[in-house]
Amino acid sequence: DPELCTLDLRIKGMTCASCVGRVERALQAVSGVKTAAVNLATERAEIIGPDLDRSALVKAIEDAGYDVPTRPIDLIIEGMTCASCVARVERALKTVPGVTAANVNLATERATATGTADLASLIGAIADAGYVARAATETAIMSEESAAKKTAEEAALRRDVLFAAALTLPVFVLEMGSHLFMWVHMAVMNSIGMQNSWYIQFALTTVVLLGPGLRFYRKGFPALARLAPDMNSLVAVGTLAAFGYSLVATFAPGILPPGTQNVYFEAAAVIVTLILLGRLLEARAKGRTSEAIKRLVGLQAKTARVLRNGGLVEVPVAEVRPGDVV
To answer: Most exposed residue of 15, 44, 64, 217, measured as fewest CB within 10 angstroms of its CB?
Structure first.
């Protein structure tokens, strides 16, 4: 039946055929289980059904007096930008039934959840927190596709930083130069005038915010809507406040009290440019981290010589089981 799915569980504590029968009966009593076959020699149970709930199955086994060993599940997380993202993902993983420990690494963009929870539940919890997750294999982070994606992201960030800096520099000079140096102020007043200066700053800042800075609003405001603000939310709110006030001061100054008609276009543009520069430096650091991990993985043994049935057998490392003599 194509609608049926199969789940494999390891069970500890069985000693005889009666244990097998007890576990099978406990599993078959769980809703959604069609068949359950338990093997005493391999200490494994194969459960088949149209809608299997791993946490319910694990609880049934534990209620019957046996244990399901915890196991670590590695995940690759996309979309994390700061320490608050790390804490949010860890909290989301720990709320999944069966998870006993969760650790998230921002630099490698990986998470490890230890327990009896299934992969789908972990990925779903992370998705609910606003991030994208997928199962990680030993070589997933080093795959050609992953490397190409990271290279493309770094190139895009570099391009956006240069573009934003090129537009932010004249905004900064026009506004802050007039405050710092009298001759700059006089040059602006005697050439384009202060109002035209504000118009130019408005145009350049708008391009910065809606171009390179648009990523902050696309991620920041949805995070606010989920009541889980992150660094993107902070940048989005801060820059929008400065830009909105400056917009009123430029095009509707009569709304503001006398003496408060000032613009802060340069603040919004500079914030976006500096945060983008930080993201670029972070992307480079992650790239170096990935390369270091790749070299370490290259040194890892791919096979192991294991003592089985009185002789040495060479098997892949992934097939080494607890209790083997290696």
So the answer is: 15
Q: Half-sphere exposure of 173 toward its Cβ, with a 13 Å CA cutoff?
A: 12
Give 302's contacts (C-beta < 8 A, 6+ positions apart): 316, 317
Reported as a single tens digit per residue, the pLDDT across 134-176 is: 887 644 444 566 667 778 888 899 999 999 999 999 999 888 8
Q: CA 283 to CA 265: how far, in whole Å?
A: 27
Contacts of 212 (CB under 8 A, 6+ apart): 160, 161, 163, 164, 272, 273, 276
> What share of the chain has pLDDT > 90, as a percent?
33
Res. 118: pLDDT tops 60: yes
Spell out the long-range contacts of 193-197 with Cβ–Cβ below 8 A and sequence spacing 24 or more. Answer: 195/250
Strands 99-105 vs 71-78: parallel, antiparallel or unpaired? unpaired
CB 113 within 8 A of CB 93: yes
User: Which of 195, 206, 193, 199 lies closest to 167 in space, CA to CA?
Assistant: 206
Q: What is the pTM of this model?
A: 0.64
Q: Which two tokens stand for residue 120?
A: 């789908």
For 279-296, the pLDDT digits (tens) are 999 888 877 776 777 778
Q: CA 119, 132, 129, 106: dihedral to nearest 10 degrees?
A: 100
The one-letter amino acid at 146: S
Asked if residues 40 and 20 have their Cβ atoms less than 8 Å apart, the reply is: yes
* Opening angle at CA 279, ends 289 and 209, nearest 5: 160
